[in-house]
Specification:
The complex is a heterodimer of chains A (about 150) and B (about 260).
Chain A (H helix, E strand, L loop, with lengths): L3 H7 L34 E4 L3 E2 L4 E8 L21 E8 L2 E7 L9 E7 L4 E9 L4 E10 L1
Chain B lengths: L10 H9 L14 H8 L6 H12 L10 H5 L2 H4 L9 E3 L4 E3 L1 H13 L9 H12 L14 H13 L9 H5 L6 E2 L2 E2 L10 E3 L4 E3 L1 H11 L10 H13 L10 E2 L1
Parallel strand pairs in B: 5-7
Antiparallel strand pairs in B: 1-2, 3-4, 5-6
Helix pairs in contact in B: 3-7, 6-7, 8-11
The chains are: A mainly beta (about 150), B mainly alpha (about 260).
Chain lengths: ~150, ~260
């Protein structure tokens, strides 16, 4: 089928609320999303930091954030380009000191997940920061007890 | 999906069922690649769990003129909603028609809370439905198709068996007879509904059973029906019956 899945795969979210019905022959592939507001309504973050660790232990830290990560190359079904809108930088701070940083680009997928390692030095707080293209900075932190 | 990804593992279960022409139901889970299954299995990574979290917040949020939240009447959902989603859609005697979980939520909102109905397929409605369905995770789908529900069941069955669209395909031609076969890069599942509301990677969002029906109808270039329409409610009842006994997986992850 011509562009069967492609049209829908294009962007279910971008299709939200537009051309709900009948603007094209064969519409609506997305099944008819109606309301979604802006993508940035209610960004949600999930982190996994061990509550306790031994000094010198290598920790695995995991984070997940909800974000569309629009790469700027997609078009809505109205034919309008969906502008780039991504989280372009991620940081982890251990008691204020930067222990991990990643620059993210257009190819990073929706709802970015990242896991990485650091060494448990001292008790304190591990903070994560996500820098959005729109200027927003999302933060989340967790305390760790190192014995 | 990677080539060979589906060989071995739980795909064997699906193959076993396919040999019997889908005689006993197998969840779409077993037709997926290892990577998608892993995403669903890990509650940390499963994006559908965000909707469940959102739904948990909405459950206790006071809305409407009656000054109530869902929890004001229903209390702890882990207890009060356990098994509820497994019984929907169901015949509603007062309305003399079928209601599914989403319509039921809206009925409660407008009727008891004095709150506006949530738009079909909105993030909030999907979140509440996901949260409620999540309370039945692992429980078998068990809809009632007797009595008044019978005629809706028959309608749904007829819908399922009827050829439609430019491609002239009935649901069963793929989901009964070709489950396990390839449709381009995809593997055709038996088309069960035990994972809904689910997170569809293609859509990058949650979706309801009806949205999926619409997508399927569109994909065979057939007329689509409205979310919450009588056609889809009947089909939903039939689909739930067809997969009776399958454990609720919501929120499932599908490609």
């Amino acid at each position: 089928m011509p562009s069967g899945q492609g049209e829908d795969a294009g962007d279910g979210r971008a299709a939200a609320g537009r051309n709900e019905r009948g603007a094209h022959r064969g519409a609506p592939p997305d099944g008819g999303r109606v309301e979604s507001g802006t993508a940035m309504d209610g960004v949600r973050v999930r982190i996994a930091v061990p509550a306790t660790a031994k000094r010198g232990e290598v920790l695995e830290l995991k984070t997940l954030i909800t974000h569309p990560m629009d790469n700027g190359f997609m078009f809505s079904r109205d034919g309008e380009r969906i502008p780039r809108h991504i989280i372009h930088r991620f940081e982890a701070l251990y008691n204020g000191a930067l222990v991990f940083r990643a620059d993210w680009h257009e190819a990073v997928s929706t709802n970015p997940f990242i896991s990485f390692h650091t060494v448990a030095d001292e008790s304190g707080r591990i903070e994560f920061r996500w820098y959005d293209d729109d200027g927003a900075v999302y933060t989340e932190s967790a305390d760790i007890e190192v014995g | 999906m990677l080539a060979g990804d589906l060989l071995g593992g739980t795909a064997a279960i699906a193959e076993e069922s396919d040999r019997f022409g889908g005689e006993f139901p197998v969840s779409g889970y077993h037709y997926m690649g290892e990577l998608v299954r892993a995403l669903q299995d890990d509650d940390f990574q499963n994006p559908g769990l965000f909707a469940v979290e959102h739904g948990a917040e909405l459950w206790v949020a006071v809305e409407g003129t009656a000054g109530k939240s869902c929890a004001s009447c229903h209390g702890d959902a882990a207890h009060s909603m356990r098994g509820v989603a497994a019984r929907y859609p169901a015949y509603a005697p007062k309305r003399r028609e079928l209601v599914n979980l989403e319509l039921r939520i809206n009925e409660e909102r407008t009727g008891r809370m004095g709150a506006p109905a949530l738009p079909m397929e909105s993030d909030a409605l999907l979140a509440l439905a996901a949260f409620i369905t999540y309370q039945s995770r692992g429980m078998p789908m068990n809809v009632d198709v007797s009595g008044e529900a019978r005629r809706f069941f028959e309608d749904g069955k007829a819908f399922y068996e009827r050829r439609r669209g430019q491609l002239d395909l009935a649901c069963g031609q793929c989901h009964d007879r070709l489950a396990g076969a390839r449709l381009r890069g995809d593997r055709i599942s038996q088309g069960h509904v035990n994972g809904f509301p689910f997170y569809r990677l293609m859509w990058r969002s949650m979706g309801s059973r009806h949205r999926m029906f619409r997508w399927c109808n569109w994909a065979v270039r057939a007329e689509t029906y409205a979310l919450g329409s009588p056609e889809y409610l009947s089909l939903e009842l039939y689909a739930a019956w067809r997969g009776r006994g399958l454990p609720i997986e919501a929120p499932a992850v599908r490609p």
